[in-house]
Design a protein that fits this description.
The chain is mostly beta strands and about 140 residues long. It has one domain. The protein is about 5% helix and about 50% strand. The chain has 1 helix and 9 strands; from the N terminus they run βββββαββββ. The longest helix has 6 residues.
């Protein structure tokens, strides 16, 4: 697990464990229906910070750093005051749901949202500035 520093842009992204699309087909009598759930939104809520996500994030690499990402968190304070010294982040993935049936019926269903909580260690950097003197 990576760590971050207070006040720095922290790249976050959905991993391969997050399905982008899920499809199921069922038959009742002579009608077969297929329901497709497509990931439509990633929402992050850090306990001590702010998140901005317009997509599902891009894994950080030196090459991607110049391109930027669509999902960032900026933490306001270190995670020292949290259990196990990690900051909880609530994660929600919303899915848009559509269906088609062999009898010609099509449509959309209510959005379904899954949720979990992950943690990120957040450190703090402090410095002391000393004025130089002319004395040896």
């Amino acid at each position: 697990m990576g760590a971050t520093i207070v006040g720095m842009d922290t790249w976050v992204w959905a991993t391969g464990d997050t399905p982008k699309e899920v499809q199921v087909t069922a038959t009742a009598g002579s009608t077969t229906a297929t329901i497709t759930a497509t990931a439509s939104r990633l929402t992050l809520q850090p306990k001590d910070g702010t998140a901005t996500c317009t997509g599902f994030g891009i894994p950080w690499t030196e090459e991607n750093d110049a391109k930027g990402t669509d999902c960032l968190i900026v933490f306001n304070r270190s995670s020292a005051h949290f259990k196990d010294s990690v900051t909880p982040v609530d994660v929600k993935v919303s899915y848009a749901i559509e269906f088609t049936a062999s009898d010609g019926a099509t449509g959309t269903m209510d959005t379904h949202t899954t949720s979990t909580t992950t943690t990120i260690p957040v450190a703090e950097i402090q410095t002391i500035i000393v004025q130089p003197t002319d004395e040896p």
